Amino acid sequence: MTLAPAREIVLAWLSERVPAARIKHILGVEQVAGDLARHYGLDEAKARSAGLLHDLAKYFKPQLLLQMARAEGLELDSVLEAHPHLLHADASAIVARDEFGVVDREILDAIANHTLGRPNMSQLSCTVFIADTIEPSRGNTAQLEALREASLQNLYAAVWQTSDYSLKYLLETRCYIHPRTVLTRNWALQMARESPETGNSTEKSIEQITS
Q1: Which of 60, 74, 155, 156 is the most core-located residue (most Cβ within 10 A)?
Q2: Which residues have a Cβ under 8 Å from the Cβ of 173 and sit 6 or more positions away?
Q3: CA distance 197 to 58
Q4: Domains plus CATH for the chain?
């Protein structure tokens, strides 16, 4: 398969492994990622597939996540070792490939990058990364509404603002921060500043997100 298995097969698999609230989130990511892809002229089908598959390993036990990562040869650092949950994105890509036969590299990368992001990730990865935070079931706070507005103005600006949103939460809750989140934020900020359609909206968006 080049894209993804039949949608109903994935949903049946998920229904046995994740709670209903998580499926609602997954469907929201599927929809928003597809909408963003269409808005930016990307492959909507790929974005929707990645959104549908992005949380396959969300509820895998920590030791299983570590085992899968080691078997795949993924680089593990002290943060990932201490907090294996951060590996669920990479593990979900492995499940998509091994369980559902997904071979499209762009889809697999979008799944793997949806939590921590990655510098130089594709625009398709950007759509899933953003959608994971702004999909409707996340709520309707002023910050989320600002992110949703930003997501339609400049894809890269939305990535760094989403990263800032996550970093603010992690700092306030005294959680560990993986370096890749910071690297993703800095890369996306640079890309947004170089992107002509950003204009003066970048500085305005900073005020919205941080206020």
Answers
A1: 155
A2: none
A3: 35
A4: 7-210 (1.10.3210.10)
